[in-house]
Amino acid sequence: MSSRTSIEPTATIPVRDAHVMDAARLASWLDERLPGAGALTIRQFSGGQSNPTYLLSTDSGRYVLRRKPPGVLLPSAHAVDREFRILTALAGSAVPVPRAICYCDDVSVAGTPFYLMEYVEGRIFWNPALPGLTPPERAAIYEEMNRVIAAIHAIDPDAAGLADFGRRENYVARQIERWSKQYRASELEYIDSMEQLIDWLPRHMPPEEPARITHGDFRIDNLIFDRHELRILAVIDWELATLGNAFSDFAYNCMPYRMPEAIRKGLAGLDLAQLGIPSEQAYVGKYLARTGRSAESTSTFNFYIAFNLFRLASILQGVAARAKLGNASSEHATEAGSLTRPIADLGWAQARGVH
């Protein structure tokens, strides 16, 4: 099978100057918790825009360390403690996740709170169009992605020990308020489409529905696939997970269907049938069948697409602000932040199509 669209999760770089940790202090801490850890080598994963993530190579094996970035942070952002909790709660469930090992809130160890998890050997696909693969392979990947997000939403939060993982009422209203505040806190320029969305979204919210576990950033490059078969080994990057609206979470996963290729490698305008990628309608239909939901109205789905584009624009504005401060987690942060305006414009265009 071709690997031209995959980048190994081991694609690492020397630790960026802004994210250097005290290797000796960390090695000592690991020795107390991982028998035989011994010599430690630290490298940083090159991808990711939020929490700095590192590959730790020791005598006892390889591990992944994920921590809060240093510096001034937006309120409630970079909640690595919540990531650790949900990974722990989902262990052994129908949702494949890396094994969470331990959490540390002692800032003297790595400078900021962090958690340690197993390193999952596999591959990541970074382009939703999956260039270099065959149509049957693309179809299988989308089928597997659909299956796993449905599995997330099928889990009972109470049974998983996550009853208090988030407030259950007024999820969408609270999210609009939260991301409006986050956007204001990192605003670098006036963007008319963001102003329009901040005004429009609270006035067009669909009816509330029962809260489910939501990933918050479920997209193809947050999935680690087996090297030899098209099976998801781990869902990663749970920073935005909470209890919320499952259909909104699923709509986020569908955003590439509405994005042109020039914006985050979107699928809009591509010949999906020729590629072997299911149409948006077919993909949504599979999800509805898997979750037992009734057919949703077009306006409800479009609202959630517009909402998620607004939310993504706010996140990217935060990335741009961190880049300006010099504590962004990726060397591509400035480039990612530059997408704030076009994604906001796309969100406002979607909103205007809601009837």
Report on this structure:
Among the domains are: 8-118, Phosphorylase Kinase, domain 1 (2-Layer Sandwich); 169-209 and 297-355, Aminoglycoside phosphotransferase (APH), C-terminal lobe (Aminoglycoside 3'-phosphotransferase, Chain: A, domain 2). Helices cover 40% and strands 14% of the residues. It contains twelve helices and twelve strands. It has a six-stranded antiparallel sheet with strand order 2-3-4-5-7-6, with helices on both faces. A two-stranded antiparallel sheet has the order 1-8. It starts with 5 loop residues before the first strand and ends with a helix.
CATH C-level name of the domain at 8-118 = Alpha Beta
Mean pLDDT: 89
Low-confidence stretches: 1-10
Count of extended strands = 12
SSE topology string:
EEHEEEHEHEEHHHEEEEHHHHHH
CATH-defined fold name of the domain at 8-118? Phosphorylase Kinase, domain 1
> What CATH architecture label of the domain at 8-118 applies?
2-Layer Sandwich
Rounded to the nearest angstrom, the radius of gyration is: 20 Å
| Structure class | alpha+beta
Give the strand order of the largest sheet, numbering strands 1, 2, ... along the chain. Answer: 2-3-4-5-7-6
Report strand %: 5-15%
**Overall morphology:** globular
The biggest sheet, with number of strands, parallel, antiparallel or mixed sense and barrel status, is: 6 strands, antiparallel
Name of the CATH superfamily of the domain at 8-118 = Phosphorylase Kinase, domain 1
